[in-house]
Amino acid sequence: MVFSSMIFVFAFLVLNLLTHSLCRSMRAKNICLLVSSLIFYSWASLTFTAILLFDTAVCWFFGLFVEVSSGKARKRLLALCVTILLLVLGTFKYTGFLLENVRLLFGVPEKVPEIVLPLGISFYTFQLISYVADVYRGRVKAQRKFWKLLLYASLFHQCVAGPIVRYGEVAEAIEERHVTTAQMSRGISRFTVGLAKKAVLANACAAVADIFFSGDAAALAAQSTAGLWLSGAAWMLQIYLDFSAYSDMAVGMGLMCGFHYPENFDYPYLSGSITDFWRSWHMTLGNFFRDYVYIPLGGNRRGRGRQVLNLLIVWSLTGLWHGASWNYVLWGLYYFVFLVFEKFALGKRLEKIPGLLRHAAVLVIVFFGWILFRFEDMASLGAVLRGLFGLNANAAAPLTARITFTSNWALLLVSAVACTPLVTNLRLLLKKRSVRSGGAMTAYAVVEAVHPVLLLVVSAMALVGNSYNPFLYWMF
Amino acid sequence: MRETMDKEKAKEKLRTIYRLKNGLFFTALGVFAIIGGLWFLRPEVSEIEKRELTAFPKLTAKGVLDGSFGTGLDLWYADTYPLRESLIAANHRLQALYGSQSEQIIIKGDGNKADEIPDITGPGDSKPTTTPVETPSTDPEGTQGGETAPPETTPSTTETEAATTPATEPEESLPDGTVDQQGEVNGDIYTTGDSAYSLYYFNRSGTERYAKAVSRAHELLGDNVRVFSMPIPLSSGVMLDPALLKGVGASDQRAAIEYINSQTDPGVYAVNIYDILKKHNAEYIYFRTDHHWTARGAYYGYVELCGAMGVEPHALEDFEKREFPGFLGSFYADTQSKGMKNNPDTVEAFVPMGTNSMTYVDNKGKEIKWNIIMNAEKYATGNKYYCFSGSDQSLAWVHNPAITDGSACVIVKDSFGNAFVPFMVDHYEYVYWIDFRYFKQKLPDFVAEKGIRDVIFCLNIYNTTSSGAVGLVEKLIG
Question: Fewer CB atoms near the end CB (10 Å): N or C, chain B?
């Protein structure tokens, strides 16, 4: 069950919100949320739930011991807990990749077993690591009650595709939370905007991206240059709209229940540098790597050489986290190169480059980054990269590209606008004016009251007959 | 002081707005949820998509463990949501706003790209196609002079039932798979205004496998059984400008059929009906709102086949013509085009002279009496093509009382074959037709059992190309 499915929105969520609001005590509300979350998680497979329970049990157990121990023992307990969590993650996520590479090098094993990746394991593993690490650092108190830690790890709002929420960010809310009318209203807006971003825009962009980005390497090599650029642009829009939509929905549902999850995106396509891009793209993952990998490794405190090495480690891991395939590693290293270049070669000179040029450069770099991200086999990747520069000497099919563009230009334009704060800013402007002007107040009232219902209806229209609807970040 | 009061007032107003907003949202959410809960209103069949909708999944321990039960529930809930047809129609109107949809649209299917069609010019390409054979024992004159069973001879109740309840047989056995998953063409569509066309992408290995399968059929059946292969072009190849087709990367269907025919064993009667269709392409030979050819198109295919068989084709005027206007086919279902809706197709059907009675075997193995041309006047707008030959049944046959020489043929067909079958009725005492997607018996066994003399492969060119469809042809032949 994904958020952008009819059954989730009109059955699961409705029942969840209804029971949550009917529960009087905080304990009942939490039990309601935990049961909902476990049902949601088990929907994908009951086996996956066992892994989630195991990981949480490990962290709960170690968390309690880490808190009361000190010195080396404290460190060892943390290391052991993190190792267990990473082993579980590694077993499910990287065994196939590792064995495939061994097979390529040494010819054994003959057949690489196919291991299904448990839903959201990359997300909840990191959440649980942050919990034990924060207990170790004394930033949070260890949770005495297992079921409450399980609630944190399994909370269906964010457990399968982020944002990566730290225990400290929800610990208080688990004990005590309230929902005001204004918060509920904000939550509704965030949720419906996210739902429509995914169901209407991202899915439609995906269809455009798939037109020229489908098939094997030979099929890709036969695509026209114009078609590849068009699909590339649609793919770039899709990946942002899709992923940020999930975070919007998570934040929205959190607000509806009294949780305040961290933001995950801050209009990354408007960044003026690659450093800025990564400060505004999947922010909770970037912050995780900064706080739990980069800084513990020494960050920038041990000289330039060590800093570059630390960055290399962080960006290789960032790549690998996104998927067990070399193209993701390459994608991570691709950004490492640009980040190091910006930090050490350009330095302050970066700001002297005209803004327009910097923004355009970021978009081009990110565009090619997403191409690396999309194609897991190197032959397809090569075919597309050559094709983008017209080097395939292929039978051009410009008519298909032209018709695809004319049939979808408005969609692409609206999707591009959805990557900017334009609509949000207009809404805020209207709100500001409404304090002084009666007309503006009426307009704001209409916009506020109508938009969630409108977005809900439009999303239902798009979802009901649409089986093509996977979340991109679902299986990471 | 006043400013503070104003601010307070504004705040209160905002709170009222938020309460209104929240109330409206939860009301809308609740209405959708209640509608979703009205299980008795959930549709089982989609009129627009002409398929059975997803059934409620079976609850099994394995399904719960591996997640397939959950996935099944998701699909069932969305697929059978009570308002689905209205919501889908509304969504099509929304999608029309994605860009300028005035004239041309291309809907891409599975992203297949065309292989280059190998050049076959050169010596040694002497196929029996071009040489009409000796006239067979069937006397075309005799068939014309035979008794004609009028449509009325079929029990009228059967026809009325079908006309008033289109969701029952034979439509019941026509799931979406017929068109979508079983490999029929509706994936790549080129649309202009109120007309759409199926595009074709050549695939060398698929076509070679098909040619090999047909050749194997000839080898297994021996020289006493004639094997005819007649790939049917898709509308784009016959109706659209070649430059335009090249522009969208689609293949030349004439060359593709020539290549397929060049690959079959010389003993196979490989028929190329492309030229005759192209010649008549100003006539109404393909539907505009559906991926099939019309009966008139099928007639020209029949004329060309008669040439290869060495028999005289009947004139189109000799058949009783029926018309069923208001047909909106698969292209309309896919595009929901306003142009098509405003200008629907008319299904023309030509009733065989010898008889209009046929029998088909339903999916429970029961023999059902039917009409070769059913009255489709009351069929749903999307179902009028079902009037032909009992539609896509695994096995059907006609006993033509006008001929008594024991002659028999079998037509191996997809849904394109349905419009073609009626023309063959007046040439044999027994005409059998089997749908290659559903028929389970091996073809050589069936041919031997029925004493069949002619085997006619009558598949649209996509089904002679796509590996999925060709796999089923291979399985049929054994």
Answer: N
